[in-house]
């Protein structure tokens, strides 16, 4: 039961001080979550603190690889279409 930070993390530092388990490490090329320490904030907060402050959609994913902040969740913009729209 742990989340992961992936390549699109910009290393903004917002999440690191919020983690109640000191599970986040300032690593390169992107920050990392120690799976042995991450509890998904269970018992500490109702929501994962890292994902609640992360400004980058898709930077934090769950064990299944699903983003906690999926495309459009922060920007309110619809995800880009898989194929270009025809020009009329
Ligand atoms: S889900 Fe909670 S415990 Fe896990 S890394 Fe994020 S802030 Fe830390
Ligand atoms: S808040 Fe998001 S973008 Fe910023 S360091 Fe943490 S995971 Fe990376």
Provide a descriptive summary of the structure in words.
With 88 residues, the chain is low in regular secondary structure. The chain contains one helix and four strands. The longest helix is centred in the middle third of the chain and has 5 residues, at 49-53. The site of one iron/sulfur cluster has 15 residues, from α1. One iron/sulfur cluster binds at residues 5, 9-15, 31, 50, 53-54, 56, 59-60.
Characterize this entry briefly.
The protein has one helix at 49-53; strands at residues 4-5, 24-25, 32-33, 60-61. With 88 residues, it is largely without helices or strands. A hairpin with a 6-residue loop joins strand 2 (24-25) and strand 3 (32-33).
SSE map:
Blueprint: E1 4-5, E2 24-25, E3 32-33, H1 49-53, E4 60-61
Antiparallel strand pairs: 1-4, 2-3
Bound molecules: iron/sulfur cluster (2 copies).
Highlighted features:
88 residues; little secondary structure; 1 helix; Alpha-Beta Plaits; two-stranded antiparallel ribbon; binds iron/sulfur cluster
Give the domain tally: 1
Radius of gyration: 15 Å
Bound molecules: iron/sulfur cluster
Shape verdict: elongated
Beta strands, count:
4
Helix content: under 10%
* Helix segment tally: 1
Distance between the termini: 49 Å
Structural class: little secondary structure
The CATH topology comes to Alpha-Beta Plaits
The ordered string of helix (H) and strand (E) elements is EEEHE
| Mean pLDDT across residues | 94
- Provide the CATH top-level class: Alpha Beta
- Biggest sheet character: 2 strands, antiparallel
Strand content: 5-15%
CATH architecture: 2-Layer Sandwich
Unreliable spans are none
Largest beta sheet: strand ordering: 1-4
